[in-house]
Amino acid sequence: MTEEPVEVVVVEDDPRTLKTLVRLLSSLPELRVVGSAVTGEAALQIVEALTPRLVLLDLELPGIDGIEVTRRIRSTHGDIEVLILTSFEDETKVYQAIQAGAGGYLVKREAARLLRQAIQDVLDGGTVIEPRLAKRFWNYFQSVQGGRAEGQANSLLSDLERDILQMVARGLTNQEAGRVLELDRRTVRTHLAHIYRKLGTSSRSEAVVLALQKGLISL
Asked: pTM for the full model?
């Protein structure tokens, strides 16, 4: 049986860019664009009404910005993934977006080349950061933390849970992590749900950031 297309909402304040993104996503058979918005407030309203599987979200929006939109979506709909697509090539913005619960961060100039795979990776349980920004982000993260508290709260997660989270932090999808650990994808997803509950988080990216802060995993 053919799988139903993944429902997507696109949030972008520039009408021309919005039209281009909708056209690009509509050309992909695995996706269905079910709505769009040009402001943060409208984005929250349409997400609440349609509950899509994925929100493709700009950061710079009139009214409520993309970081706050991400935070609100993830706090009320933990099963909705958010992928940031923006012009900002700024590691501090990446940090803020990941902390808010975004599953990925891409810059617009790379959309045509990377967007399709990034969407698939996020939906499969990966965390996506635009390659040129990834190293800068982790350097920034470590400088903000001032060094991790090694071994702090090590008993919080089991060895297997730490192994899974370590792989997620390095960008592996659920399927890839399962292949390494000889587990099926559903089992990995179940372990991740346990990890989120233990850490009090609602997404892979939040869990990775918190686990790094606590010294539970390293890069």
From this structure: 0.71
Alpha-helical runs (H) found in the chain: 15-26, 40-50, 66-76, 91-100, 111-123, 131-145, 159-169, 174-181, 185-199, 204-214
The contacts of residue 8 (CB under 8 Å, 6+ apart) are 25, 31, 32, 33, 34, 52, 53, 54, 55, 56, 119
Q: Is residue 56 part of a domain?
A: yes
Residue 199 lies in a domain: yes
Q: In terms of domains, do 82 and 180 share one?
A: no
Query: How much is the CA Rg of the chain, to the nearest whole Å?
Result: 17
Q: Residue 197's pLDDT band (boundaries 50, 70, 90)?
A: confident
Whole-angstrom Cα distance, residue 106 to residue 132? 10
How far apart CA 72 and CA 85 sit, in angstroms, is 17
Residue 43 shares a structural domain with residue 99: yes
Domain tally, the chain: 2
Range of the domain at 100: 6-139
Tell me the percentage of the chain whose pLDDT exceeds 90: 45
